[in-house]
Q: What sequence folds into this?
């Protein structure tokens, strides 16, 4: 198992929105987000995936995903630390991101690599 901690920032949300084109106000507009059920901006799910995939590439250079599946069951917020985890299993690699404060899973995925 490989584990790291990452605290996403609003600047990262904003940069990811510019790069990806996903400028949904739930990610980039604090005033809008304050009026939602989340009460603040939330991370793009694919930003979390990108951080996890960077960990995969760092620990296993040259691997290629054959298949991937992912879910985003809970929001991740700017300024709140996440625990990023990779765990090798018989049927592939499990990728998770959980909020450090309460253990809520924000990203849950599985990848088969070659």
A:
């Amino acid at each position: 198992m490989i584990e790291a901690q990452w605290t996403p920032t609003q600047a990262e949300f904003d940069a990811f929105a510019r790069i990806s084109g996903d400028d949904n106000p739930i990610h980039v507009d604090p005033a809008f987000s304050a009026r939602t059920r989340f009460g603040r901006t939330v991370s793009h799910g694919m930003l979390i995936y990108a951080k996890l995939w960077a960990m995969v590439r760092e620990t296993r250079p040259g691997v290629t995903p054959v298949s991937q599946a992912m879910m985003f069951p809970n929001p991740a917020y700017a300024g709140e630390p996440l625990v990023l985890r990779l765990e090798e299993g018989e049927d592939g690699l499990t990728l998770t991101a959980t909020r450090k404060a309460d253990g809520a899973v924000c990203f849950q995925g599985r990848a088969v690599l070659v």
Summary: The mean pLDDT is 96. The helical segments are 10-20, 25-28, 30-34, 45-59. The longest helix spans residues 45-59.
